[in-house]
Amino acid sequence: MRLQLIAVATLALLAGCATPPPPEPGSAASKVVAMGKLKNIVVGAMRVARENGFMTVNAQLSNTSYNNKTFYYRFAWLGPEGFPIGEEETWKSQLMYGEQTSFIQAIAPTPKAVDFRLEIKTP
Amino acid sequence: MFARFSFIAVIALLASGCANTSPTLGSKNISYGDTKAVETVTNEFGSTDLQMIAESMTRSLAQSGILQGRPVVQVYDVKNKTSEYIDTREITTSIKTQLMKSGTARFASDNTQMQSQVDQLKLQNQSGLYKKNTVAKTGNMIAAKYRLEGSISSIVKRSSDYKDVFYKFSLQLIDVESGLAEWMDEKEIRKTTER
């Protein structure tokens, strides 16, 4: 009886440690490349459009902490084969106030970009 | 005997750990860094500011739809209205390079390149050194449809605890014939040093 209880408790704990399933392809989460654990910054919805031939992205980000947070981000633009086109972008530093939700916008460097990834790093 | 042997083995292991197996030569104090990293060495105008400005201006202009049919643009030097030394020509060079790579515009010889352009044309046409059918004829240069000019200014504020520098870069695209500004954008950057 005791052994069974221990076995059940162990299974429950291990289930809590299990890795979460990968994000759905095409979802906003699948476009985010988090470099390490994102502390208090949550990526929300993304709007993707094509304006005058250039892909544009608007991504919603939220600071879940009470304190101001600085994070670094950049976009990587992918061609039809799924590989990056053009040079890497420069890293941008963004300050978010406590519990703020804000949007970051980006425009692709060339009309050839068909997909993107948002690289984020929290210090 | 065993102690001596193990001592030699430990020294050999340590020595092999220090051996340089990378294809590098020189001091470990110097290394190549990331050109795209956020640079906050001082709060003067830096590489990240230059890159951010060039990137945001170029993307905004390319995506605006004004540059239909790859028009010819003449780029003028950006006026430096700050109190710092800033090589503003590098900002315009980056903007030109990125616009060229995006395929949205072509550039006429600007004031720095015009002399070389004229010298080359004179050399080809007047020296008598070149085959006539290979010579670039004078009177065929394409005039610019637009001109691109901008300025960068700064506001610096200091207190005992802070030094705050606010940069404002503005750029406009003007139709040469009509004199109308067809596109304008600006980029603001704030850098704060907390003492």
TL;DR?
The complex is a heterodimer of chains A (123) and B (195). Chain A has 123 residues and is mainly beta.
Question: How does the SSE layout of this entry go?
Answer:
The complex is a heterodimer of chains A (123) and B (195).
Chain A: H1 2-17, E1 32-34, E2 41-51, E3 54-63, E4 69-78, E5 92-96, E6 101-107, E7 115-121
Parallel strand pairs in A: 1-7
Antiparallel strand pairs in A: 2-3, 3-6, 4-5, 4-7
Chain B: H1 2-18, H2 47-63, E1 72-75, E2 79-80, H3 88-102, E3 106-107, H4 111-126, E4 146-158, E5 162-175, E6 181-194
Parallel strand pairs in B: 1-3, 1-4, 2-4
Antiparallel strand pairs in B: 4-5, 5-6
Helix pairs in contact in B: 2-3
Provide a descriptive summary of the structure in words:
The complex is a heterodimer of chains A (123) and B (195). With 123 residues, chain A is mainly beta. Chain A has one helix and seven strands; from the N terminus they run αβββββββ. Chain A has one helix at residues 2-17; strands spanning 32-34, 41-51, 54-63, 69-78, 92-96, 101-107, 115-121. In chain A, strands 1-7-4-5 form a four-stranded mixed sheet, with no helix packed on it. In chain A, strands 2-3-6 form a three-stranded antiparallel sheet, with no helix packed on it. The radius of gyration of chain A is 19 Å and the shape is extended. The N and C termini of chain A lie far apart (48 Å). The relative contact order of chain A is 0.24. The mean pLDDT of chain B is 91. Chain B is built from four helices and six strands. By secondary structure, chain B is α/β, with parallel strands linked by helices. In chain B, strands 1, 2, 3, 4, 5 and 6 form a six-stranded mixed sheet that branches. Chain A binds chain B through residues 51-54, 56, 72, 74, 86, 88-93, 106-111, and chain B through 36-38, 48, 51-52, 55, 58-60, 62-65, 98, 101-103.
Q: Largest sheet of chain A at a glance?
A: 4 strands, mixed
**Which ranges of chain A are low-confidence, i.e. pLDDT below 50, for 5 or more consecutive residues?**
none
User: What is the terminal-to-terminal distance of chain A?
Assistant: 48 Å
Strand fraction of chain B: 25-35%
Question: How much of the polypeptide of chain A forms β-strand, as a percent range?
Answer: 35-45%
Order of helices and strands of chain B: HHEEHEHEEE
For the largest beta-sheet of chain B, the strand count, sense and barrel status come to: 6 strands, mixed
Which word captures the global form of chain B?
flat
How many distinct beta strands of chain A? 7
In helices, the fraction of residues of chain B equals 25-40%
What's the alpha carbon Rg of chain B, rounded to whole Å?
27 Å
Mean pLDDT of chain B comes to 91
Euclidean distance between termini CA atoms of chain B: 61 Å
- SS field, number of helical segments of chain A: 1
Largest interface: A-B, 20 and 18 residues
H-E order of chain A: HEEEEEEE
Class by helix and strand content of chain B?
alpha/beta
